[in-house]
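Q: What would this chain look like folded?
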Amino acid sequence: MDPPKEKWASGNPPKSTTPKGVNLSSGKLRPIKRAQSTSDASSTMRPAPPKKKGSSRKAAANADPKDLVQDNKPSSAPSTLLGEIDKTMSETTKTKAATTTTTTTTTTTTTTPKSKPKPKPKPKPQPLTCKGTLSMKNPLKCKTQQDQPETVFCVRYSPDSRYFAATLGDGTIHVFNAAGMFQRRIKTQTQKGGEELPATCIRWRPKHSDKGIAAVTGSNGSLQLFELSTGKHLHTTWEADNETLALDYCPDASFLATAGRDRIVRVYDDEFNLTQEMQSGYDHQGRTTAGHANRVYAIKFIDKNVLLSAGWDRTVQVYDVRTGRAVRTFFGPRVSGDALDFHKNIVLAGSCAIDKQLMMFDFGSGRELTMGSTVSKNVGEMYAYSAKFSPTGASVYTCGTQPHQLLGIDVKNGAVQGSLQEVPHSLFAMDVAHDGKNIVTAGHFQAVYVLNVK
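A: My prediction, written as structure tokens:
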């Protein structure tokens, strides 16, 4: 029997009070199927509402699983487990932070810089030592572009001993007076587009000391003429495919000879016309000789018609300018610089070796003289790059490297008369003034030393 119908004043029945999710026909609870919507599709990314206090287990059971998502965690992870994970992670983070703080504190305490000890003062360079007949004022230094270190390849006094000139690795010529006062710097010529290469050798022209005319060779194959008193360039000759390393004038300045890498000795007249190219020769028995077999580093005129040349092939060739051939050969010295000289029929050759650095030969017979061994006994193991007689021939001066020094040696007994020692760099060049009162030597790092002879 149906219940009686009631009339309501509003005309509309009241809302059902049946709990949501209760099927009145069966009396069982069933889940309510929600209609999917665009907003529901992203509901798992929404933060869960805050949990109310005093919520019942039944409300939790009836709640939609999507509503159980908390703190943006995936819905597949139990909320209780996530809470424990969060708690553990929070505690771990705090522990790490505490550990980091402790480590930082410990590290800071451990690495606290102590007061640094005062640096030890750098040892002062040992002063140059002059002994015996040699004395020196302050060393000189050639002024180069941008203060770049350069090597001095050659130094030479003027015929009147009032000046000397030095040639450097940057292709420049530096002129000083006898006291060491700088006069001028002259730049040598280069080929068009060519780089600056060393000026290797210089010789003042005899009988023209008033104008200071000098010839200069370069490793770019050049032979140049300058007026050193003004710096004026006068002439240039190019030797193709050659590095011109050696140079000398004959005593009356009528001829000029050059030599270098290609082993050919070239002779020019006063107008720079090539008159001879000497390479081969013949000995006293008429047999043909090959001339030089390696670079030539030194040339020395004995007179107008005869000159000496020496280099790396351990020979000293004697050339006759009139015939253009070598007429004699001396064997032994390995010449690597301006190390040829001649005095009263004796040929002096400086050898770049650890023994027999100063070799002497009798020019007439070609025989090696024992006085060469006498003057070499106190040289030690120095490699000699330059050697020269004193004006009287009583002494021999030589300079070199390992050790870096200059020595003045008595020709008769081999005793060291004077020396310049404790030089910080190698010495490659040296010359004795024509009046015998001064000696100039130079080498690495454009250092120049002017010595007085007592």
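Residues 194 and 220 are 9 Å apart (CA to CA).
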